[in-house]
Structures are given as C-alpha cells and as structure tokens.
C-alpha cells in the first residue's frame, strides 16, 4: 500500500476511532462512578449509618427545547443568507434549501416547547 493511499484512509478512519475512544471513556467513567457508590454504600452499612435517599438517584434531565429551537432557527437563517449571497443568479432555490433543514428543526423545537408549556411539562429556560 502506497503512502499516498494510506493518508486518506487514516484521515477517514480517525473520526470513527475518536467516537470509539470517547464511548470507552464514558463507559469507564460510569463504571467507576457505580463502583464508588457501591463502596460508599458498603462502608455505610458496615458502620450502621443511613445514607440520604436521593444519593443514588440520577439527576433529572431537563429539556432545552426553547434554547435549541432558537439556535437552530438562527443557524438556518444564517445559512440561508450566506447561500443566497453566494448563489448564482439562477440557482437561488437549490442553495437556499440547505438552510431550511435547521430552520424547520428549530421551528419543531419551538412547537415542542410551547406544547409542553401548555401541558405543564417543565422545560429548562
């Protein structure tokens, strides 16, 4: 295999290797956290102490639909403006359509936010 063919192969595989490494790190972090909690529980049981009930509960994850929606709409508008200004005179629709994807996703997130707000579901502001 030539060195000229090896470089693109390495460059293309690096993102996948990075994802695998990050997943491995996250998995080890979770395992270590569980191990420390088990050790704490065992030491407390040996000494006859009681632990707070909420010590082992996972924190509640709050949704950020309003913030995400605004960011996606802004990104979509930015892409649309950038593409419109750099487009060929007869090719506006094709270029502008690239910004419609994040724009529509942002509208969806805003809809979710307002529907949840109406139903009383908590959303992080």
From TrEMBL:
Domain (DUF6249): residue spans on this chain: 10-116
The residues that cross the membrane are 6-25, 66-84, 96-116
The scientific name of the source species is Parabacteroides hominis
UniProt-recorded name of the protein: DUF6249 domain-containing protein
Sorted keywords for this record are: Membrane, Transmembrane, Transmembrane helix
């Amino acid at each position: 295999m030539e060195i000229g063919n090896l470089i693109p192969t390495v460059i293309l595989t690096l993102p996948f290797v990075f994802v695998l490494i990050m997943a491995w790190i996250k998995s080890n972090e979770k395992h270590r956290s569980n191990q420390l909690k088990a050790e704490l529980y065992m030491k407390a049981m040996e000494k006859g102490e009681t632990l707070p009930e909420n010590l082992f509960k996972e924190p509640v994850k709050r949704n950020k639909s309003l913030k995400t929606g605004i960011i996606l709409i802004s990104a979509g508008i930015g892409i649309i403006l950038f593409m419109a200004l750099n487009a060929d005179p007869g090719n506006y629709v094709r270029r502008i359509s690239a910004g419609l994807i994040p724009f529509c996703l942002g509208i969806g997130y805003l809809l979710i936010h307002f529907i949840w707000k109406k139903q009383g579901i908590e959303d992080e502001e």
